[in-house]
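Continuing the series of single-chain predictions for the mutant panel. This is the parent chain; the variants come on the following pages.
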Amino acid sequence: MRLRLALHYIENLDQVFRNVWWTLRPGGTFLFNIEHPVFTSGVHQEWIYGEDGTPKYWPVDDYYRPGQRVTRFLGCEVIKHHHTLTQILMGLLHCGFTLEVAEEVQPSEEMLEMPGMKDEMRRPMMLLVRVKREATGAD
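Parent structure:
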């Protein structure tokens, strides 16, 4: 099962993880990407710019306080839900998944030539996770 860029809109990840676990066959894989918790932590989810107009830093604030964040995307107000890395990974493990991959995705060398992409190397924006529902004797 694949899920792309949706989980940061979900308040209760544990319920989603339980539902996915029950939906998958034993041996099945759940692959998803989510906005990285560093990216979603602050209530101000954009770069802080210096006087010269260049990105100065990405604000990480209230990281350990999960919950709703209101941000702007394509000119619209959007509600997201921040979850810590521990909540995401331990939530999967507590459901019985086996972690196969957790990768903080970064731009490829080719992408770094695109305007603004070099700043994407300054903080993680995306997290890719692959887990497996192991086959057991009870399944």
